[in-house]
Design brief:
Elements lengths: L1 H4 L5 H15 L2 H11 L5 H13 L3 H10 L10 E6 L2 E6 L8 H17 L7 H16 L5 H13 L5 H13 L4 H13 L6 H4 L8 H11 L3 H4 L7 H11 L4 H14 L8 H6 L5 H17 L4 H14 L12 H13 L9 H10 L7 H18 L4 H13 L5 H19 L8 H12 L5 H14 L7 H14 L3 H18 L3 H4 L2 H9 L5 H18 L6
Antiparallel strand pairs: 1-2
Helix pairs in contact: 2-4, 4-5, 6-7, 7-9, 9-10, 10-12, 12-15, 14-15, 14-17, 17-19, 19-21, 20-22, 21-23, 22-23, 23-24, 23-25, 24-25, 25-27, 26-27, 26-29, 27-30, 29-30
Length: 558
């Protein structure tokens, strides 16, 4: 740096390099060597980077040592927002609304409103409307001081001779930002919709994609006031059909009921254009993603010939949303999450010829997803599909799973993640085997290996797979229970003890509640609780009681 760019080395440069080496490359030892040779010692930011890595690795003694040797004083970075009004930039720092910046903010908001009106706000250009929405957001913080201004906004909207989508967007935004205005905004929306034409029905339905329940309800009730809707004369339109269909499958029953009435008034078939549903699968609001997932499955059931193409679209959307951006943030995880939900919900409508395609997708991509929640949902989707179709497709599915488990790993980390899921799939499929099939014993052993994985979702899944397989393990029951109890009490790692308790609960459920007494499980656990010299025994016993209560429910109640 000094030779090439004639820049003197400063602490800030070194701090950045150290932060990158620790957080991205995880080169802790090399970093410490650099620090010891630099001469200037540690600053607070360097220490925090090192503490992060020590914490992740569980080296709490090292954390305490660093903190003791270097008294770190943390300072929170204050968030801020800014608004441009009358060609001046106004910046508001966090909590200024509550403190000394209050009057500055109020004055700036007045400038914003005047500027918007000067630019023809109520002609509703896109830019001016966005400015208005920002203003309403700030008003929502101090709406008790802006009652008159919000009422003024709504009056100007309703008095505008031209009604457009932006008018409704502002009212929906007011309703979402300031819920106390429901009594005023609801009638205003109804009045607005009375003047809309049939070509404006689709924009009026934008509120069904809102996060807030009361906004979605207000939107649907107002849409019923549109003359074309009330007279059942709306022409068939994909955007209209998609919005109502999504609302019809809203997770909130009250929304779905209103949407059902609206769908009857629309009086058209949904059709086979699912483009709007696929877009909604990646919507920022969770309620929209869930509704779109359920809505898609229903139309796939009605039009099975579109299933293969729709699966291909889902897989391509997953690939699109995979990976991280330049900022190293996985922003597409929620899109992949809802694809897992869609596959889970679609288990009933899949056909035999679809199974290899879906399972290959899960194994080749989804089971190695970097997001734990997505990976867990993909495993659950696979289990559901196997539960629905496994009994009639043993010869089709077993070779797919066995081929993967028998192949050599090219990427150890990815292979381990996928292997866990495939073993669980094999366990779910094995319950459809006959009682005397020798494959069952091999599957049980693989499940007991995977249950040591320090993931609660995987341990729960394995536990559920073990229970139905115990009909084939009656002769080995005592040795199996003893093996798991020994692991509960003596394993060095917490994750292994936790996994053993999940496995024990699954095995006991499979053998029946009487096995608790028959194999002395309750006695061993009580002795473990009373073991004064071993915290591991006491902890393992408590974990076992917790898992047994969760798994056996009322059967385990005293």
């Amino acid at each position: 740096m000094e030779n090439a760019y004639v820049l003197c080395q400063q602490t800030t440069h070194l701090t950045t390099i150290i932060d990158l080496m620790i957080k991205l490359a995880r080169k802790l030892n090399e970093t410490i060597n650099i620090i010891t040779t630099m001469g200037s010692g540690l600053n607070d930011f360097m220490c925090k980077s090192i503490l992060d890595v020590y914490g992740v690795r569980g080296k709490w003694e090292s954390v305490a040592t660093v903190k003791k040797e270097k008294d770190i004083k943390t300072k929170k970075v204050v968030g801020c927002s800014w608004i441009e009004a009358k060609r001046d930039l106004f910046v508001f720092k966090e909590n200024e609304v509550v403190h000394h910046g209050r009057q500055d903010m109020y004055s700036t908001l007045r400038l914003v409103m005047w500027g918007l009106e000067d630019e023809g706000l109520f002609g509703f250009s896109k830019d001016s409307t966005q400015g208005l929405l920002v203003t309403i957001n700030y008003m929502s913080i101090t709406h008790h001081l802006y009652n008159g201004r919000v009422e003024h906004i709504m009056e100007r909207i309703l008095s505008s001779p031209k009604k457009t989508r932006l008018h409704g967007d502002v009212l929906y935004h007011v309703l979402g930002a300031i819920p106390s205005y429901q009594g005023s905004v609801g009638p205003a929306l109804n009045e607005l919709c009375l003047g809309l034409q049939s070509e404006e029905v689709a924009p009026a339905l934008s509120g069904v994609y809102a996060k807030d329940l009361h906004v979605r309800l207000a939107c649907l009730n107002a849409t019923k006031c549109i003359p074309a809707i009330s007279s059942r004369s709306v022409p068939q339109d994909v955007e209209i059909a998609t919005s109502i269909w999504i609302a019809l499958h809203d997770p909130e029953k009250s929304v779905a009921e209103v949407a059902e009435d609206l769908w009857d008034r629309y009086d058209c078939e949904f059709g086979t254009d699912y483009s709007g549903l696929f877009r909604a699968l990646s919507h920022v609001n969770y309620n929209v993603r869930v509704a779109a997932s359920d809505a898609l499955v229903v139309v796939l059931d009605e039009y099975p010939d579109t299933l293969q193409e729709s699966l291909a679209t889902l897989f391509s959307l997953y690939i699109r949303d995979s990976g991280v951006g330049e900022d190293m943030i996985d922003s597409g995880w929620f899109g992949r999450q809802v694809i897992a939900m869609a596959l889970h919900a679609a288990a009933d409508v899949l056909r035999t010829k679809d199974l290899p395609v879906v399972m290959t997708f899960l194994i080749s991509r989804a089971l190695a997803d970097t997001n734990v929640d997505v990976r867990g949902r993909m495993i659950n989707a696979g289990i559901m599909i196997i539960d629905k179709h496994g009994k009639d497709n043993l010869s089709l599915l077993f070779p797919i799973f066995e081929n993967y488990l028998n192949k050599k790993a090219s990427d150890e980390e990815k292979y381990d993640l996928v292997r866990e899921g495939v073993v669980i799939f094999t366990g779910a499929l094995a319950k459809h085997l006959s009682k005397d099939d020798p494959k069952v014993h091999a599957v049980v052993e693989k499940l007991l290996e995977v249950i040591n994985t320090p993931s609660e979702a995987i341990q729960r899944a394995v536990s559920s797979c073990l229970s139905p397989l115990m009909k084939s393990k009656q002769e080995d029951a005592l040795s199996l229970v003893t093996r798991l109890l020994d692991q509960v009490m003596k394993s060095e790692k917490y994750g292994e003890r936790r996994g053993a308790t999940s496995g024990l609960a699954g095995v006991i459920k499979g053998f029946g509640i009487s096995s608790l007494k028959k194999y002395g499980v309750a006695t061993v656990l009580r002795e473990g609780l009373a073991h004064r010299n071993s915290a591991k025994c006491r902890e393992g016993s408590l974990l076992a009681f917790e898992c047994l209560c969760e798994k056996l429910r009322k059967l385990f109640e005293p």
